[in-house]
Specification:
By secondary structure, the protein is of the alpha+beta class. The strands form two sheets. A three-stranded antiparallel sheet has the order 1-2-5, with no helix packed on it. β3 and β4 form a beta hairpin.
Length: about 190
């Protein structure tokens, strides 16, 4: 006995669709994503796009510019993202790498400017900020990552050297070369 054809396809539960073109089992690297109208703004389209050049806030930095290219579903108008666990992990990893790279570049620029323009030695900066001997050298060789606090202190020393050294001089002993930045207005310890 044969079944009569009705012209309709049988319905399949969503769980059975996993592994098809529009669903991922998490093992493939280039997963497909069906573009759709943005549920937030209604004007844009959410589609899987290259994130290179997009700025995202991360930790203490207001805008980390992505240099890598994770493909993430996001709206071309408002930036709304639809992330599953794999997309979130890939995006977090890319943002963290670029965050560290950009912070290190900022730190190196600031340290080089301080060392060149203010005639401070690495050991003077170490004494000034109360860090261990050789720490600045490790930062310059990219062997160590600076804390957010040290990054801010180094930047302050670059943009406002007299005020930074004077403020530190109120609570700590200043190295001789740092006292030279202030001229005769500060007593020697």
């Amino acid at each position: 006995m044969t079944k009569a054809r009705t012209g309709r396809r049988p319905t399949t539960p969503r769980a059975a669709l996993r592994g098809t073109a529009n669903h991922s089992d998490g093992n493939d690297t280039e997963r497909s994503f069906r573009s759709r109208r943005c549920h937030l703004c209604g004007d844009g389209t959410i589609a899987r796009r290259d994130m290179r050049g997009v700025s995202l806030p991360h930790r203490d930095v207001p805008a980390v510019v992505l240099t890598e290219s994770p493909k993430i579903p996001y709206c071309n108008q408002c930036g709304e993202m639809l992330l599953d666990a794999a997309d979130a992990g890939a995006l977090d990893a890319a943002v963290e790498r670029d965050y560290r790279r950009q912070r290190q570049a900022t730190l190196l620029d600031d340290l080089q400017a301080i060392l060149e323009s203010h005639q401070l030695r690495q050991c003077d900066i170490e004494v000034l900020f109360g860090v261990s001997s050789g720490y600045v050298s490790k930062l310059l060789r990219d062997e160590k990552a600076a804390s957010p606090l040290l990054l801010r202190l180094v930047h302050l020393l670059r943009v406002a050297p007299q005020a930074t050294v004077a403020s530190i001089g109120e609570v700590a002993v200043l190295p001789p070369s740092a006292r030279k930045l202030l001229g005769s207005s500060v007593r020697s310890a």
